[in-house]
Amino acid sequence: MSTNLLSTSAAIGFGGVVQEYLWNWENQQLRVVYETLGKGSPLLLLPSFSTVSTRLEMSELARLLAPHFQVVAIDWPGFGESSRPSLNYRPEIYQQFLENFVKAIFNTPITVIAAGHAASYVLQLAVKHQAAFSRIILLAPTWRGPLPTMGASQQIAGIVRELVRSPILGQALYKLNTTQSFLSFMYRRHVFTDAAKITPSFIEKKWRTTQQPGARFASAAFVTGNLDAVHEQSDFLELVQSLTIPLMVVIGESSPPKSREEMNALVALPGVKSVVIPGSLGLHEEYPAVVLEAVQDFLFSSHLHLP
After folding, report:
1. For residue 32, which of 126, 104, 131, 88 has the smallest C-alpha distance?
2. What angle do CA 191, 193, 197 make, to 5 degrees?
3. Which phi and psi angles does 195 have, rounded to 5°?
4. Pairwise CA distance, residues 39 & 97, whole Å
5. In this predicted model, which residue has the larger pLDDT, 154 or 32?
6. Lower CB density within 10 Å: C or N end of the chain?
7. Euclidean distance between CA atoms 90 and 88, whole angstroms
8. Cα–Cα distance for residue pair 305/271, rounded to 1 Å
9. pLDDT tens, 69-97?
10. φ, ψ (nearest 5 deg) of residue 24
11. What is the reported pTM?
12. Distance CA 130, CA 83 (A)
């Protein structure tokens, strides 16, 4: 496993140093792209899993944090500019990747800010290796993929996943679900709250992300719940209760009802700091300055203790 510098002209970044981390999974080498900006104590930014997942959704937040931290933002395997092979994407891949990446890149406990579905993976690693992180901020955390949230059984979700993975029909289905009009509809429905920010050029950038070769494989896994690292609310809450490091949760006041219920259950636990700000599931991209303002006391306090 190694890291290489990528020429910044070839990579579409947010002004940092773009590198690749070469990672092996079951005898297959994956190229994982990450970007570093700023100097100071290390802070890892993990984008949410989604059809349009990319480190660029963290770009404004990264720029705001860079004067205070050395910010590292990643493209998850199967998403963004990272390799997108036709693997059977499942939690074990991302659990192992995150553990290996954190060990390889950092030599000190780090602050981590994780959006959406990245929450379970961070919590699992923090419980397994308590020295990995010094503090955790979860932005609009979720643990259940879209289809299971809508009530689809594991069997139905599995059928959909295999259909999307299939060569010709799968590509056609995926194209239908990643048209610019559909992406715009999804953003309006539960990602952003200010429709004025969902411009044609914004949606076109998102659409380009979805059209990379092999993009449908990890995306189908996420949508059908195959990237759900836990399957019950009780398991998710148990992870939080097992934590020994400070945790803060940021909730968008316009979050979808089912997601909001899950977030409310999480922040009701003792010792969890929380704040509600404008926005929905994409609050870190829509309101980065508001996010930073909401978490800065937690982020910059040098001595944090759980109550």
Report:
1. 104
2. 90
3. -60, -25
4. 24
5. 32
6. C
7. 6
8. 9
9. 999 999 999 999 999 999 999 999 999 99
10. -100, 130
11. 0.93
12. 29
Q: CB neighbours of 193 closer than 8 A, spacing ≥ 6? A: 252, 254, 278, 279, 280, 286
Q: Is 275 exposed, middle or buried (0-12, 13-18, 19+ CB in 10 A)?
A: middle
Distance between CA atoms of residues 3 and 156, nearest Å? 40
Q: What would the mean pLDDT of 39-44 be, rounded to a whole number?
A: 96
Instruction: Tell me how far CA of residue 269 lies from CA of 70, 126, 236, 276, in angstroms.
Output: 31, 17, 12, 16
Mean pLDDT of 213-241: 95
Please tell me the predicted confidence (pLDDT) of residue 2.
61
Handedness of CA 120, 56, 183, 293 (dihedral sign): positive
Could you write out the DSSP letters of every residue in the chain? -EEEEPPTTTS--SSSEEEEEEEEETTEEEEEEEEEE--SEEEEEEPPPSTT--GGGGHHHHHHHTTTEEEEEEPPTTSTTS--------HHHHHHHHHHHHHHH-SS-EEEEEETTHHHHHHHHHHH-TTSEEEEEEES---S-HHHHTT--HHHHHHHHHHHHSHHHHHHHHHHTT-HHHHHHHIIIII-S-GGG--HHHHHHHHHHHTSTTHHHHHHHHHTTTT-S-SSHHHHHHHHHT--S-EEEEEETT--HHHHHHHHHHHTSTTEEEEEES-STTHHHH-HHHHHHHHHHHHH-S-----
Q: How far apart are CA 32 and CA 46, in angstroms?
A: 13
Please give the C-alpha separations between residue 11 and each of 49, 54, 55, 110, 122, in angstroms, as whole numbers.
20, 12, 12, 26, 26
What's the token pair of residue 305? 């203790």
What whole-number distance in Å separates Cα of residue 217 and Cα of residue 165?
6
Rounded Cα distance between 307 and 304, Å, is: 9
Tokens of 43: 């802070």
Query: Which residue type occupies 100?
Result: N
